[in-house]
Design brief:
The chain is built from 8 helices and no strands. By secondary structure, the protein is mainly α.
Length: 199
């Protein structure tokens, strides 16, 4: 697929660097859209699903913009808000685990470490599910499949964790940078899912 894109760019007289910069710019714009769509807090799975679809359209040179992103967001929101609510519940459970560790409960370190690792796995599975979402898909089926891929494809899962680390570092450096970088996380999840499909 990349060879076909390179040939199409060459036919248009476009340099390879221009195509890569356009993708980077699209990722940043998508990150802002994802951040705005995630403001109601339980809508982040639908926002990532719509952002991933937008980036997928951009990579295949299909027409897409804010209107298509909004339509995908509304469609993904039908079951996605429940996934968002479950994600916040998982975060609350891990927060209680971390508090138990700080309180000095026996075995708390192990429970806290397992809880944090489980939360990271859940986040990765959620991002992978959002990256493979299509209108009409069941979130339950998507999450089950993404959970299996998270375990069976550890290299891809670590790539998504790396994307999350970039967001954390960007937020630590300058909080406003974390918003556009969310698009890079969506792009990482799309790339990982595409890589897994073509194995």
């Amino acid at each position: 697929m990349t060879e076909a894109h390179a040939e199409a760019r060459a036919a248009r007289g476009e340099s390879p660097l221009a195509g890569k910069f356009a993708l980077f710019a699209e990722c940043l714009l998508t990150g802002v859209w994802i951040a705005l769509a995630s403001l109601p807090l339980v809508t982040y799975p639908a926002a990532f699903a719509a952002g991933s679809r937008h980036l997928g359209r951009h990579l295949t040179h299909e027409r897409g913009g804010l209107r298509e992103f909004a339509a995908d967001f509304r469609s993904a929101l039908r079951g996605g808000w429940q996934v968002g609510l479950a994600g916040w519940a998982a975060l609350a459970v891990v927060w209680v685990d971390v508090r138990a560790v700080r309180a000095g409960l026996p075995g708390g370190e192990l429970v806290g470490a397992v809880g944090v690792l489980a939360l990271i796995a859940v986040v990765v599975a959620g991002l992978r599910a959002a990256a493979s979402w299509r209108p009409g898909d069941s979130w339950r089926a998507l999450l089950a499949g993404a959970g299996r891929r998270t375990v069976l494809d550890p290299a891809g899962s670590f790539l998504v964790v790396g994307g999350l680390a970039v967001v954390v570092c960007s937020a630590w450096f300058s909080a406003p940078l974390a918003l556009p970088v969310l698009g890079a996380v969506a792009a990482a999840a799309v790339a990982v899912e595409e890589r897994y499909r073509h194995r």
